[in-house]
Amino acid sequence: MGLFDKFKGRKEPERSMAPQEAWDNAFKANVNFYGKEGEEPFGALVLTEGVETVLPVTPWERYGLDGKPVADWRLVLVSTTEQGILGMLDYRKAVDLLRPYLQEERADMVLTRGLTLEQIRGLLK
Predict the structure, then answer these.
(1) Is the pLDDT of residue 53 over 60?
(2) pTM metric for this prediction
């Protein structure tokens, strides 16, 4: 917002700060590791339809498997309406795609809104 906007009576857009209660009540995504024998494991976190969720922004910097870093990370998208997994996204790409649905970001964590089925499907396009 520039100085001239203030003279014209325009206000800065409000930034909503999620109250601590929203962070406390949101689902904290659990880190899970998967992989087939002989293949490199991948880390996965779940985002479920309609559920406010706290996700790490860079889980590869915080979590590892048996003391070793894991390079491949995925966000698993789950539908309660369709009662199953809709798909998976590369985690780095997913964090960028989730930006419009974030309530707030703190340090290395984000708080998402509860996404609708259509919004989750939109992430997969």
Answers:
(1) yes
(2) 0.82
